Structure formats: structure tokens, C-alpha cells
Amino acid sequence: xxxxxxxxxxxxxxxxxxxxxxxxxxxxxLILPGNTVLGIVSAIANILxxxxxxxxxxxxxxxxxxxxxCYGYLAYQQRYYGNMLLNWCYxxxxxxxxxxxxxxxxxxxxxxxxxxxxxxxxxxxFGFIIAALSLIFSYFLARYHDGMPxxxxxxxxxxxxxxxxxxNRFAEQWFVWISSNFISVYMWWVPLxxxxxxxxxxxxxxxxxxxxxxxxxxxxxxxxxxxxxAV
Length: 231
Fold this sequence. Notes:
This protein is mainly α. It has one domain (2-229). The chain has helices spanning 2-5, 12-31, 37-54, 60-77, 81-103, 120-143, 149-167, 173-193, 199-222; strands at residues 106-107, 112-113, 117-118, 228-229. A two-stranded antiparallel ribbon has the order 1-2. Strands 3-4 form a two-stranded parallel sheet. Strand 1 (106-107) and strand 2 (112-113) form a beta hairpin.
């Protein structure tokens, strides 16, 4: 069964990282206020998802489905409407698209997905598009009394492009995730200080996401053959 098999054959330190990540969620949930069962489930499912993405394992999409459904509701509770729409209207359907695209490009020997690279032209273009759309989107979010208009808009746009790069197997996704996760840590630090429901586990989740995105960047940039794609 892929859900179990995809955890086989890892390096010792990778198992340590996985166990630490899940344990960290439980520990933070016990120590910090603002904890709910939904927040814990969301955090653990999403952590399993991103760790498996870093490993290039296709079962990440199963955990991704569970994670985005739960997290979307948590974002709704905090009035982070951009993140709510991102998870329910974009991440959720792309879990199925991503599974199909990854399944077509699995390396049978390594049991991991083959990886691609963007051209420098495409990288610069993506950067300009993200910056411009974030400014526009933040204006509309502010009109609907969003909790943090610009950070919410920026993380939403970064995540839109990050997910697009992920399902198409581009290693540059990890630079996008690093930026998005860093901002998201700040966004959930504020509700944590206010003892908001689900904030503790969610803050811990984004902290793990940030650390894991550096590992994913290293793993994907050092273990694949470069294929330049221009836009």
C-alpha cells in the first residue's frame, strides 16, 4: 500500500525529522493555549504532506487533501479569507491534478518523482507577477475586512504559484514555499498571542513547514537532472 510503502527506505535522519515534526505539533499543542482537535489534525496531515513532497513521494496528495480541508476551515475562523479560498478552491482540486501528473512521471527504481527546473527568464517573470497580483488582491481583501490584507494576499499568491510549480515537478517551488511559510509563521503568531482557537497547532505547523522547505530545497536541487523550461 502506497501510504505505508512511501515511508520505507528513508535515511535515519529523515525518520528523525519526521518523528520530531509530528512530536513538535503535539508538544506545542499541550504547552500553548488556543488548541483544537481540528488544528492538530490539520497540522499533522499537512506536515506529512510536505515531508513526503520533499521526498518526492506521490502519497503526499492523500495527506494534502485532508490537510487543506481542515486548514481552510481554520483560516475561515480567523477571517483569512484569501487563505480559505486558496485551500478549498485551489489546493483541493489540484491535489487530484497533482496526483495524476506525478503518477505519469514516477521513477520506478527510486519510487520518487522526476524533477524539473525553470529557466531564469521564467523565474523573473513569476516574481513580477506575484508582486503585482499581491498588491491588487490585498486591496480587495482590505475591503472585506480581512485580518491581514497584504500578508494574506502575498501568501495566497505565493502559494498559488508554489502549488502550480509543485504539481508540475519544478524544484523552484521550494524558494516560493520558503517565502510563503516565513510570512505564514508571522500571520499565525498574532492569533497565538491572542489565544485564538487552533492557533497553537497551526503556528507549530507553519514553523515546521518553514524548516522543511529548506530541506526540500536542498533535496530537490541536489538530487535531480536539470531540465530548463522557458515561459
